[in-house]
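Field: sequence (string)
Field: structure_tokens (string)

Example rows 1 and 2, in order.
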Amino acid sequence: MRPSMQGKVAIVTGGAGMIGLATAQCLAAAGADVMLVDINAAALAEKRDAVAAQGVRVETFVADVGKAGDVAAYVARALAVFGRIDAFFNNAGIEGKLAPTHEYDEEEFDRIIAVNLKGVFLGLRHVLPVMMRQGRGAVVNTGSIASERGLAGACAYNASKHGVIGLTRTAASEAGPHGVRVNAVMPGVIDTPLLEAMLRMMFNDDVAAGKRALGRVATLDRIGTPAEVGEVATFLLSDASSFVNGAAWAVDGGALSTIRH
């Protein structure tokens, strides 16, 4: 049974992506009004109706999460429209190019860190004060199984996702006494366009072969779906997880639980 988010307001960054959209749909189905934030205006417009179909109020905001002014602007807009922020899925991220660490392009490294790590920091920087003034709220940051493991060729992505867990634990310790919880999800191999882009690089454009191979990383012998991440994120953003704080939840089919393949 999905926990209730009735009467609550949620912000979802990366809202035009598959995990962001799936989580927004889960939040809306649980009763939350939602603001979708993404840098892709056209994709946001396309995805808005899929969330609004749940019968809740949906706003969209175009922003670069790596820019402080944009982050401040989407937070201000959410407050102007809804009056409060109860839940924040701090989710926007990019995968970047694959290359050995000793050959990795510096500009590409900076680009990934700006979105995946600085973007999460800026979200916390601007949303936490709102929630702390309210005396309640819940945040879920999006990490990855790369938050706990290395992936050859992905030094920037790995570094950014390790950093997300550090930010999560620090913010949880600071905001917890003010009634605000901060947790993270760590998706494993999830069926998204981001995954397909990585598989094209890793498996010479044979995406199907890549999905079969990476599916065997999980003890469930398959890749996951965006909705499976969304349901866990919704739980962590709801009052049903009221004593969970500073946690990093793997949504990975058991990939981190053992050494396999």
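Row 2 begins here:
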Amino acid sequence: MTLFQCRLSPGLLVFLVFLSGCAATPELVRQSRPDRVRVASVEQVDAFQLSGRVGVKYDEQGFSGNLRWQHAAQRDEILILSPLGQGVAQIEQNAAGVVLTTAAQQRYQAQDAETLTEQVLGWRLPLAGMRYWVLGRAAPGKAEMQLDELMRPKRLIQDGWQIDYLAYREADGLALPQKMTMHRDDLEMKLIIDDWVID
């Protein structure tokens, strides 16, 4: 990344420091990044953080809670919390596979998140596709997509999943999903994203 440098007068520097001290800090850690290049589209995003709420219905059962997710090109870390903020499961994925740690500190390992979450939690978390779907884009491979009147994804069908985008919000200059549902067979997931950080 190329940084442009310029000389600032002492008075202007003091003024800028004063302004930076007035900024409010959101709940999700967000640092000032004046040197960050603003991305033009979601296709350029390869790392993000999000926090939100998740609801799951499966086999006449249900779960609702909070979700915190950090995604990078080669790593995912997801924390699933109860509505009261207690840890339910932590999922870590990298090139070696997927590890799920429960609130009781029991560790389970598998090669993919869908198999592991179904075995331990009872429902499948489609992490391989979700890292693209939460951005409003299809994962590599065959997919069907319907757009809304603003040319944003409205419905995406891929790998047996139907993803419906119900609301969007702007984050870092991008229109990103705020509310979405994902269906497959008798599993339904609803995700409401309260905060986005694009890295």
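free_text_note (row 2): Residues 10-20 form the longest helix (11 residues).
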